[in-house]
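ZP: hey, is the zinc ion complex queued? I don't see it on the tracker
AM: it wasn't, my bad. submitting now with these inputs:
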Amino acid sequence: MARSFAQLARSAEKTSSSVAVPKKVLDTPPLQIHTMGDEALRVDARRIGKVDESVRDLVRDMLRSMYTARGIGLAAPQVGIHQQLLVIDLDPENSTTPPLVLINPEIVSASASLDTYEEGCLSIPGVYLNVVRPSAVQVGFRDEMGRPRTMKADGLMARCIQHEMDHLTGVLFVDRVTDASELSKELNDHGFQSSDVRSIP
Ligand code: ZN
């Protein structure tokens, strides 16, 4: 049996993410992204109780702001909202891949093996530096419908999840950079202050 166009459209709607928004650059993003030096980035985020439509509205606005800034991940504290929520889309050029939403994420386990990888952050525009982190993680979280989930991630996804989760405890990737001279040079070159770095002991 062939399905009508209307049926196809309905079934596509059902399977696509309930928070997906067009992946495009807007003239005015709905949310402003704070940059390093702003105290908002250093505040602990609170757990989210009920995952309701207001949370999904925030997710949509975060996605719109992330796509506008041409990022692949954004955490709520970066837009001044101190809730444990982050969005990730490693495939922003592909309109059919749904974004990933992590609410109250927790690292369940991390690999002993470490990777060095160059990171950047929408809150520290222009700055790219090597950071060492576990190469794979298992993370537990709630999705945009409030359903409990766990996932295993490696490669860029593991990297992105760990970077975004740091934002939930007020940590920036530059805090983890071990090459102090590279760090201060790169920050100075892009108009940021080394004194705003809070090195991880
Ligand atoms: Zn970041």
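AM: back. The CA atoms of residues 14 and 159 lie 30 Å apart.
ZP: great, adding it to the tracker
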